[in-house]
Amino acid sequence: MTRHSSRRASLREMLGERLSRAERYLRIAGYFRSSLLELVSEEIRNVDEIRVVCNAELDPNDVAVAKAASEGTDAISRMLVANWMADQTSLDTLFEKDRYRILHDLLVSSRMKVRVVPRDGSTVFLHGKAGILEYRNGGSTAFVGSMNESATGLLHSYEILWEDDDPEATAWVREEFEHFWSLGIDLPNAVVEHIGAVSRRIEYRSIEEARDQHGIENPASVLVDRPIYKSGQILRPWQKRFVQTCVDDWKLYRKARFLIADDVGLGKTLSMASAALVLSLLSNGGVLILAPATLMRQWQTEIQDNLGLPSAIWSSTTKQWLDGKDLPLSFKGESGAIARCPLR
User: Fold this and answer.
1) At what angle do helices 189-199 and 73-87 cross, to 10 degrees?
2) Cα(105)–Cα(83) distance, rounded to whole angstroms?
3) Confidence of residue 88 (pLDDT cuts 50, 70, 90)
4) Distances (CA, A) of 44 to 132, 204, 325
5) What domains can you pick out in the chain, each with its CATH number?
6) In this structure, are residues 158 and 170 in contact, taking their beta carbons and an 8 Å threshold?
7) What is the pLDDT, as a whole number, of residue 93?
């Protein structure tokens, strides 16, 4: 048995050395963060199989409601996506793209699998931390301690670990791991896709700079940071196809003219609003929506909630522009103001 203390020696070096010889890595972690790969990226990339089970920062009541819903697991998956995206800061995703690229490569290759255990009354909060490293030479070791899988846990906190290569100790930790692994939910594909999108992100100072250098080739790059994706939802396949078709026609003819005749409930409003957003960035133009008075609020609410776009409604009664809270954006009674929308 070996005792490790971050006060006495670097736990990053200890973990890195063990991982460099490992064939398989099983880990019970309080929380899993991509920042682990900032420290041991080369070592962990050479491990054949990595399985991590960890907590999900979800409210137990929300999980219980989601499980009771008809869509069950899908609802919980959307919550996990929203939770992951809310935890990523803009500066972190901008400066640590390599870390996200390595994490994405590991996840899509199926060499790394992550499961989260949401609390709903039947499961518990994973506070204990433990792991198993199986080496290529046939040996193995188990460890138990306070260290989380994060840069903070490895570098900036006082952490202790007890390591034991006795087969009985390894079997004991494995039994604990497999128990919680069976209770976990796979990391949703939408999270994996988001990690990949972050790793490929290019930041520009303005829309003009992006358009001049590369053009907006992929509509998904425009939508990936919008509220609909951050809430764990995505455009449905036919909605994505409509947006892409509009973009393709605009590139060929510098215009796109279509009529959507989908059934009620298939998301026509969001399809057209998403296409309008992308086309407005391509053409540097504004967006004008003509709709019956009874549907104007629906349009305004959906594009704000799903796409994060503020909009103004023209009131034919008071002859002025109003925002989403019915606050005036122009003076009352100026009929000529209809041609000068303050939000473009």
Assistant:
1) 30
2) 21
3) low
4) 14, 32, 51
5) 2-192 (3.30.870.10), 203-286 (no CATH)
6) no
7) 47
